[in-house]
Design brief:
globular; about 150 residues; about 15% helix
């Protein structure tokens, strides 16, 4: 059976890059981790406040990976976009779990949006979850709908 995207009344008239979560909320709160590695050292920190990322990422000679589990918090994504100069169109695609898999190349950013598929042995069903990846110079940001999937 065909599946159609349904526009809700509160979305009518808004620009296409408006940050509105489309999908099923799978977590109560987002989980934010930064993994920093380079020159023989590895550091993983779980943070509560997005603003802390700016301090942690500015270390010279390191590669930084920010993993965010839970993609429904508009305020946090806006703040993240401001800190790292991420286009709002990218962030709106991150929040839309109905997006098709795609790759978009920008001047200084590569954005990858794809689906992770898992087979639930107990329920005998295939579970689909969105994974979004943003790649910049020495920074990788990943967004998952739920904790504990591919990267665990």
């Amino acid at each position: 059976m065909a599946k159609f995207a349904i526009k809700h009344k509160h979305e009518i008239g808004l620009p296409p890059d408006e940050l509105i979560f489309h999908g099923e909320k799978k977590m109560k709160e987002t989980r934010k981790r930064i993994i920093t590695f380079g020159s023989g050292k590895l550091n993983e920190v779980e943070i509560d406040d997005i603003a802390m990322l700016k301090q942690l990422v500015n270390q010279q000679g390191t590669i930084n990976w920010i993993n965010i589990d839970g993609i429904d918090n508009e305020k946090e994504l806006i703040e993240l976009g401001e800190i790292f100069g991420i286009d709002q169109t990218i962030l709106s695609d991150v929040m839309n779990t109905q997006q098709r898999a795609n790759i978009q190349e920008y001047e200084d950013t590569i954005f990858i949006n794809l689906k992770m598929l898992q087979f639930d042995q107990d329920e005998k069903i295939v579970i689909s979850e969105q994974l979004s990846i943003i790649v910049q110079d020495s920074l990788v940001i990943t967004f998952q709908e739920n904790s504990g999937d591919v990267f665990e």
